[in-house]
Design brief:
heterodimer; A: Rossmann fold; globular; B: Rossmann fold; 12 helices
């Protein structure tokens, strides 16, 4: 309890009185110094989030989306870390806070729902202590009040027989139940912002729908801001107000959800959307796979990081990094030859004519009328790794 | 759902015919029937998709078919041979034609062995060819799954991404030229972009080599993409068997319909009424519900479902369902009814 009084407390205005956005991230860079070189996990990420709104952050593994949530929270280790840019939350710049001051932020102002509820929960501590711990320390509740609040929380996340579940250890709960407990812990102290890092990855589709609905309901009731991090565009399509698509540590396209799907500008977003198997397609529909894989964040290629895999890529893309451009209200993208523009159509047609494998795979044009599984490889830009052969995997 | 019966079986002469398969784990009170009287068949060159939530017994079924975990009862007839009747030596021989690809591509490769050695090993075990011949074949197989063999051969699994490791696992499974490939969630650990690459690869290999596949997955969209026939499992039993286009357009089993409705569509205009189509969780398989096993979560459950287990029966040509009250065929009218029923009647919570 002493910890609470050691430093001067931060004062947070009530979110409803706030004039600036709830969260304002500007040019956030999170670099790790490793033996392999500098890993640029977040390289100039900027976005804002208003209270009660949801931002979906979408990207493949290794795109830096999890580091982004940790970096915003200030949860990263200090060693070998280089962080610049600003994270303004409710009027405070979180990057300048001391660890003690950050304790005033965590839990009561913002909290994280971690991806894997089995490893995020302490396996040797019962649910009740994991839940009441923050209530007692943060909110200063006594044992009985904390217990009652915890029961109410478990009820609100849809756990039947909460009294009994309070005495359980995490391993006695099913995967869905554990994720509900995780959510209850994250929401215990009434945060204004929740960072949900792949909250449903690893859960069954039926459970996924339940958990996402639960999060949406709780968010509405508490008018929380939420950052929903996922690799599944299907998860955010119906639930986010805005979507930011991450690739190689940057936001490569950001737009209001409907806009992103209907007026896709960035070839990566388009490729990601096309690679998903759709229920509406007949079976054995050939998938438009993206050849290769994301670049190594410690050895990024020159120019646009997606260029080595991009069906639209031209020489310019391989030398010059495209700056963010706007396309309508709130729609930002970084591309020299955007989808749906004359330059873009032209670039794609040129690549198809030149027989660029990525373009052929993307458009479904098969050279010589045969689909070969193995053919030449394209550089992935990843140093020291073996290039994934894109061949006939259109 | 969760019915027994063999109406869905098509004939005696198919490549794989599994009848009344039962797999149990544990002893006494804790005995779990992971697979409880499951029957299906797969024709040569066909891909059977096996879908269901985790814990429904789909992986156990796959492993039992390959006799990795021998079934406690039932028969597995593969290419005219009853696998369960074979002795250990005969079984090893037969199993060269039945290979598996596992879920986690990185942990299913030995981290301390070079890729080429792992891929060559099946040939070494069976003493096929000289070392040079084995090496040549391993290189050729690696190339056929899209791995640059010259570059990859001497490396270890840690140097590869998940997608590449899965390609290597597939190459290893193909070394003995199996006729049946059992893929247990081969893409669930991979990113969507890489997932599409692997699914396309499996489809190509199937065509080129005339492979027969059992494809186990929880993702219905993935299963639809690769399968010629889909079997839906729930709590150790089969609910519905049909070709994918039929099953997805006209799901007859309430569980299939609920699974389909749970899939998040990557389309913001797709309507969602904010209610999960299926509440609650899978009941414990140690003490499954009487009658139809799905009744505790089924919006249509009646008294009959408690007392009587539904048998698998034909609804149409090659469409089989184990349900007393299958959904009517035009699914457009069935969907609102399901959603409405779920909102109102939720007698089943996640107990």
């Amino acid at each position: 309890m002493n910890l609470r009084h050691r430093a001067a407390h931060l004062v947070f205005p009530d979110a409803s009185e706030l004039e600036e956005p709830l969260l304002d991230v500007q040019d956030l860079r999170t670099f790790f110094h490793t033996s392999r070189g500098v890993v640029k996990a977040n390289d100039g990420v900027s976005f804002t989030l208003d209270r009660g709104k949801t931002l979906g952050v979408v990207g493949e593994s290794g795109s830096g989306k999890t580091v982004l949530t940790r970096s915003i929270m200030g949860l990263l280790p200090n060693t070998n870390l280089e962080r610049s840019g600003s994270v303004r939350f409710a009027g405070h710049d979180l990057t300048n806070l001391t660890p003690h001051q950050l304790r005033d932020v965590w839990g009561t102002q913002m909290s994280v729902i971690f991806q894997d509820p089995m490893t995020a929960l302490n396996p040797v501590v019962r649910v009740d202590r994991q839940l009441t711990e923050s209530l007692r320390i943060r909110l200063g509740l006594d044992r009985r009040a904390a217990h009652d609040t915890a029961i109410a929380l478990l009820t609100s996340v849809g756990i039947p027989a909460p009294e009994r579940r309070m005495r359980n250890y995490p391993h006695e709960l099913s995967g869905g139940m554990r994720q509900r407990v995780m959510i209850a812990i994250a929401l215990a102290c009434g945060p204004k912002l929740v960072l949900a890092d792949e909250p449903t990855t690893g859960l069954d589709v039926t459970l996924q729908a339940q958990i996402l609905d639960l999060l949406a309901t709780l968010q509405r009731e508490r008018s929380m801001g939420m950052i929903l991090v996922t690799h599944d565009l299907g998860v955010v399509a119906n639930r986010a107000d805005d979507i930011a698509v991450m690739y190689a540590g940057r936001i490569v396209e950001q737009a209001p959800t409907k806009d992103l799907f209907s007026h896709t500008r960035m070839p990566y977003t388009e490729a990601l959307l096309r690679s998903i198997p759709r229920l509406a397609d007949p079976s054995h529909t050939r998938l438009r796979a993206i050849p290769g894989r994301p670049p190594d964040l410690a050895a990024l290629p020159d120019g646009c990081p997606f260029a080595p895999r991009c069906p639209y890529a031209q020489d310019r893309c391989r030398t010059e990094d495209p700056p963010p451009r706007t396309a309508g209200a709130g729609h930002l993208f970084s591309c020299w030859f955007p989808v749906g523009s004359p330059e873009g159509d032209d670039a794609l047609a040129r690549n198809v004519a030149a027989g660029v494998p990525a373009a052929l795979a993307f458009t479904g044009v098969v050279p010589n009328g045969s689909i070969s599984v193995a053919s030449g490889s394209i550089p992935t830009g990843a140093a020291g790794t073996v290039g994934e052969t894109p061949g006939g995997e259109n | 759902m969760a019915g027994s019966g063999t109406a869905q079986l098509r004939g005696e002469d198919l490549l794989l015919r599994v009848e009344h398969l039962v797999v149990e784990f544990g002893k006494g009170q804790h005995r779990v029937r992971a697979v409880s009287d499951v029957s299906f068949d797969v024709a040569a060159g066909e891909t059977l998709g096996l879908v269901g939530e985790s814990g429904c017994g789909k992986s156990t079924t796959g492993r039992a078919v390959a006799l990795v975990h021998p079934p406690d009862a039932g028969s597995v007839r593969f290419a005219g041979t009853e696998l369960t009747a074979l002795n250990q030596r005969e079984l090893r021989q037969a199993r060269t034609k039945v290979q598996m690809v596992f879920q986690d591509p990185i942990s299913s490769l030995n981290p301390r062995r070079r890729v080429l050695d792992s891929v060559m090993e099946p040939l070494a075990i069976w003493g096929i060819g000289t070392t040079d011949e084995r090496r040549a074949k391993a290189r050729q197989t690696l190339e056929s799954v899209g791995i640059n063999a010259a570059d990859a051969a001497g490396r270890r699994p840690i140097e590869f991404s998940g997608g590449q490791c899965q390609r290597i696992s597939i190459a290893r499974a193909l070394m003995l030229e199996p006729t049946l490939l059992i893929c247990d969630e081969p893409v669930s650990a991979l990113d969507v972009s890489v997932q599409a690459q692997i699914l396309n690869l499996l489809d190509d290999l199937k065509r080129q080599r005339g492979l027969t596949m059992v494809f186990i997955a929880h993702d219905l969209a993935v299963v639809k993409n690769v399968s010629d026939r889909v079997a839906v499992m729930y709590l150790g039993k089969l609910c519905e068997v049909a070709p994918p286009d039929t099953l997805y357009r006209h799901p007859a089993h309430p569980y299939t319909a609920a699974l389909l409705a749970s899939i998040p569509e990557p389309d913001p205009s797709a309507t969602s009424d904010g209610t999960a189509p299926l509440s609650g969780e899978l009941p414990s398989p140690t003490d499954p519900p009487s009658g139809c096993r799905f009744r505790t979560r089924c919006p249509y459950a009646q008294d009959k479902c408690t007392s009587e287990e539904p048998e698998m029966r034909a609804l149409g040509p090659d469409h089989f369902v184990a349900c007393h009250f299958p959904l009517p065929r035009p699914v457009e009218t069935a969907e609102p009814a399901l959603a409405g029923a779920t909102v109102g009647a939720s007698p089943f919570s996640n107990a």
